Structure formats: structure tokens, C-alpha cells
Automatic annotation (TrEMBL):
Family: Belongs to the activator 1 small subunits family. RfcL subfamily.
Record PANTHER family: CHROMOSOME TRANSMISSION FIDELITY FACTOR 18, REPLICATION FACTOR C SUBUNIT 1
Protein's recorded name: Replication factor C large subunit
Region feature Disordered, mapped onto this chain: 449-496
Job description of the protein: Part of the RFC clamp loader complex which loads the PCNA sliding clamp onto DNA.
Subunit: Heteromultimer composed of small subunits (RfcS) and large subunits (RfcL).
Domain AAA+ ATPase as annotated: residue spans: 42-171
Gene Ontology biological process terms in this record: DNA replication
HAMAP family associated with the record: RfcL
Organism of provenance: Methanolobus halotolerans
Keywords assigned by UniProt, alphabetized: ATP-binding, DNA replication, Nucleotide-binding
Binding site for ATP: 50-57
Length: 496
């Protein structure tokens, strides 16, 4: 049997002009590439971001063909450790090529939002280094920008690819059907295009799937094929919000690959957008009624969790689906772009922030000989305040060995600003040379009040440990007249 991807591969665009539905992003991509032809562009790398199957990878390939650049691709199936990235992309980004006429090679890194898995450990930092050093254009491809570290994003031009509109998919599908000698009855292509929900690869795959063994496709063939497909969550949510029939909405949820625990988040996220129309109050009675059902469904979900009695999922499912269907007083038209549950996104962000907060606390704690808990609760905020003072900020970053993401977090910002970057860069200069680090320390010391006898003297401050990277900042011995059983002298802020 032919592989279902075949047509999608066969009709992959060979030039940027063939990429459908992304006029602006393609223009941006071309401009960026022309920047490389002219010399060094403002950004050495771009991130092509957007949902699956809309042509991000194809655009990168077509760009290489249009500009006659050799293509080096590093996708997620390769073991993307920092080592591999530096080896493959690093050397590719330095060497000029003999095979490409232009002498350039385009480095494409797929799934750049997925660099934190085990095998990608250190990958993000490796890419940052490669981008900084590169003399060759680099394209990163990602579904979700949240998965990319702010420091990496700051080095890249971001180009957004949106879902492709049905009206752009229809003529492209018709062209494929014509080339494949498949006759399509009235409404067939339109139906396939609609079902794809903006994902052109799915549309091509669906067309190929119904065309297998046929020279003619009619609308009935589509409905049968459609029933075989798992309904996507967007379609199911749409059925719940726009339908009147409780049974068909409920049945649609059975084919979903989501549990009621997940589905309730989808409904919760999108209900307020769907149940208010133009000129209506923000909170309509439809929304209030629907949430009453949803909260009852949530109580059943809670019981399932507590008692592990999964039979109660049925009640939760019926309440959230049927309740939402019957709560609407009218069906509101208009296009609503459904969002994935923001709660999930927030949870992910909170988790990564928490990890980073702990890393910072560990560094501050190591510097002060204090526990991580004490450091997190008492000391980190003091160090954050120090970072606001231009005079000390650089030294603090160098001494603690903060990486740039930690610095951004300590500055309380979400974005990497120019000033933060400058502080970080200056700290990198300071770190390898101990004497200049000490300079900063002595300045700091001048301002310090009278020391207590058990505090460390400045003379005991050792050179900065340049090898230690993110982990240890200060090496060497600390002398003190500590008696046995006495608490280890605590380093203080003045002991930088
Ligand atoms: N905008 C488009 N124009 C022309 N063909 C497209 C377009 N988008 C997708 N395709 C078709 O779908 C196939 C898959 O596209 P591509 O690999 O570029 O998607 P993607 O956005 O990179 O998806 P993913 O994020 O899953 O990698 C291509 O081989 C091509 O046939």
C-alpha cells in the first residue's frame, strides 16, 4: 500500500512562490535571506513559529532552493545534545560550502521548542552559542514560542505562520486532484478543506486517503471517511458550542482522545468567547447557566479523583457537554478562534519559573553558605535589589554565576532588555579575570559598614572560579577563628 504521506511529500513546494496562504511571513523570510546575501543581517537566525502542517518546514526548504543554499537539517529524531548541535550546526555555521553556488548553507533546526528533553540537554545554550558565532543563516522551527528560552528568542527574528484559510486550501487541493487524475464531485474538495482546520498537510493526507482505489470521489465517500477519523478537539468543542443536540455533542466526545478532565478545560477556556455576541454583555445568562453545569461536572471529576471510581466520568461528561449545549439561548455565529487551555500553559510556566527560582536560590545559598530554603526566603530578594544598582549588578552576576534567564527572572522582568543583556555581557568579561572581579569587590567593601569579627575579611575572598560555570562561584579557603561546634561563619553580602 502507498504511504499516506506520499502526496504531501510529492507536492511539497519547491519554491517560496508555491507556498500557499502566507504572503506576509514569506515576504519577511525572503527579506531576511536577502539581508544575508547583502552581508550580515540584523538577526542571524529566524524562528518560524506556527501550528503543525502549515508549511514552516516547506518554507525553509523552498528558501534554500530559491537562494541556492545548501541545506543542513537537524531534526528532533537526531540526538540533539549540546555536543551534537555544536558539532553539526557549529561547524556547518563556520565553513563555507563547495557544493552550493552561493557558498552559503542554511541550517534548519526542527522542533526548536522541544530542546529540553533528555537528549536535548544543554541544547538551547549550544544553539545560542552557534547563533552568536555563525557566518551562515539559521532557521529554527517551532509550534510554540513558550518552549523557547527568552535568551534564544532574543537572538532571532520571529516569523509567525498562522493556520491556512480554507479558501486558500481549496484551489491547491483541486490542483493536486487534477494532477492525480481524480475526479471530485460537488463539495468534495470544500468539505475536505473545511475538515482540515487550517492544516494543509491533513487536507492533502485526507484527500489521498479517500482517493485510494478510486478515480472519482463523491461527497458520500467523504462522510464515511470522516467517521473513521478521530474528531479533533476543536471540532468537538465547536459542536458543543454551536449545536442544539445534546446526544450528538456527547457522541462526538466519545471519539476524542481527551479525558473529561482535559475536555472541561477546553470548554472552560473557550465558553466566554463563544457565548457572547456583538453588542452583548460580557457575562451573558448563557455563560452563567453553562458554568453552573460545568461546576457540577467538576464536582464529579473531583469525586472520581478521590474515589478512583471512573464510572462517574459519564456524569461529568454529560453535565459539561449537555449542560453547555442546553444553556445557550441562541446560536451565535461568527468565527471564534479556539484557544488551548491557558491553565496548562500557566502551569508549565509556573513549573519552569519555580525550577529557575530554586536554581537561583541554590547559587545564592552556595555563596552565603546557607540552605537553599533560607536563601530562597531571605537572601535572594536582597541580591535582586543589588541587581538594580548599576554599580554592583555586573559583579553580582559574575560572582553568583547567573545565566541570562536567571538574571531576567531576578530582575523581575519577562523580557530580556538591552540593559540586562549589557549587564550579562559585562559580567562574562569579568568572570574569567579574577583581578577585575576583585576590583568590584573592593569597591563594594568600601561601602560596607564595620564588620563583625566573625565575618569574613576581604583578604580571604578568593579569586573567582572561572571553570565553575553556573555552579560554584568562589573557590579557595575561607579562614576564620571558628571554634568547634560553632556555626560556620555566614558569608554576607559584603563578602563578595
Ligand atoms: N503553506 C503550504 N503551501 C504548500 N504546501 C504546504 C503548505 N503547508 C503545508 N504544505 C504541505 O504539507 C506538507 C507538510 O508541511 P510542512 O512540513 O512544511 O509543515 P510544518 O508547518 O513544518 O509542520 P510541522 O510543524 O508538523 O513540522 C508539505 O509537504 C506540503 O505538501
Amino acid at each position: 500500500m502507498t504511504v499516506s504521506m506520499e502526496w504531501a511529500e510529492k507536492y511539497r513546494p519547491k519554491t517560496l512562490a508555491d507556498v500557499i496562504g502566507h504572503k506576509k511571513p514569506i515576504e519577511q523570510l525572503r527579506d531576511w535571506a536577502e539581508g544575508w546575501v547583502r552581508g550580515a543581517p540584523e538577526f542571524k537566525a529566524v524562528i518560524l513559529q506556527g501550528p503543525a502542517g502549515v508549511g514552516k518546514t516547506s518554507s525553509a526548504h523552498a528558501l534554500a532552493l530559491d537562494f541556492e543554499w545548501e541545506l543542513i537539517e537537524l531534526n528532533a529524531s537526531d540526538q540533539r545534545t549540546a555536543n551534537v548541535i555544536e558539532k553539526v550546526a557549529g561547524s556547518a555555521s563556520q565553513m563555507r560550502t563547495l557544493t552550493s553556488l552561493s557558498g552559503k548553507r542554511l541550517i534548519v533546526l526542527d522542533e526548536a521548542d522541544n530542546l529540553h528533553g533528555n537528549s536535548d540537554r544543554g541544547g538551547s545554550r549550544a544553539i545560542i552559542n552557534v547563533i552568536k558565532e555563525t557566518s551562515q543563516p539559521i532557521v529554527l522551527i517551532a509550534n510554540d514560542l513558550y518552549g523557547i528560552s527568552p535568551s534564544l528568542r532574543a537572538l532571532c527574528l520571529e516569523i509567525k505562520f498562522s493556520s491556512i484559510q480554507t479558501r486558500s486550501i481549496i484551489p491547491a487541493l483541486k490542483e493536486i486532484a487534477r494532477k492525480e487524475d481524480v475526479m471530485c464531485g460537488i463539495g468534495v474538495i470544500e468539505k475536505i478543506a473545511e475538515n482540515a482546520g487550517g492544516d494543509f498537510r491533513s487536507a492533502v493526507n485526507d484527500l489521498q486517503a479517500v482517493a485510494v482505489g478510486r478515480t472519482e470521489i463523491n461527497i458520500e465517500d467523504i462522510s464515511t471517511a470522516e467517521r473513521d477519523n478521530k474528531e479533533s478537539v476543536f471540532k468537538v468543542v465547536g459542536k458543543i458550542f454551536k449545536g442544539r443536540n445534546v446526544r450528538s455533542a456527547l457522541e462526538a466526545t466519545y471519539s476524542l482522545d481527551e479525558t473529561p478532565e482535559d475536555l472541561i478545560h477546553w470548554i472552560d477556556e473557550n465558553l466566554p468567547y463563544q457565548y457572547t455576541g456583538k453588542g452583548e454583555e460580557k457575562i451573558t445568562t448563557d455563560i452563567v447557566d453553562a458554568y453552573a453545569y460545568i461546576s457540577r461536572a467538576d464536582r464529579f471529576l473531583g469525586r472520581v479523583r478521590r474515589r478512583q471510581n471512573y464510572r462517574m466520568w459519564r456524569y461529568a461528561g454529560l453535565l459539561m457537554t449537555g449542560g453547555t449545549v442546553v444553556s445557550k439561548s441562541k446560536i451565535r455565529g461568527g468565527f471564534v478562534k479556539y484557544q488551548s487551555p491557558s491553565l496548562w500553559r500557566r502551569m508549565g510556566q509556573i513549573r519552569s519559573k519555580r525550577n529557575m527560582r530554586d536554581n537561583i536560590a541554590a547559587k545564592v545559598g552556595a555563596h552565603c553558605n546557607e540552605s537553599m530554603k533560607y536563601s530562597r526566603m531571605e537572601l535572594t530578594s536582597i541580591y535582586s535589589t543589588l541587581l538594580d544598582d548599576g554599580e554592583y549588578a555586573v559583579g553580582v552576576v559574575a560572582t553568583l554565576g547567573l545565566n541570562i534567564d536567571e538574571l531576567v527572572q531576578m530582575k523581575g522582568g519577562k523580557k530580556l532588555t538591552k540593559k540586562i543583556q549589557e549587564t550579562y555581557d559585562a559580567a562574562q568579561q569579568l568572570r574569567p579575570e579574577a583581578p577585575s572581579g576583585i576590583d568590584f569587590l573592593s569597591k563594594f567593601q568600601e561601602k560596607a559598614p564595620q564588620k563583625r569579627p566573625d565575618q569574613l575579611s576581604l583578604d580571604s575572598i578568593p579569586a573567582l572560579d572561572t571553570q565553575a560555570g553556573d555552579k560554584t562561584m568562589v573557590s579557595g579557603k575561607v579562614t576564620s577563628d571558628k571554634k568547634p561546634g560553632q556555626r560556620k561563619p555566614q558569608k554576607t553580602l559584603f563578602d563578595f
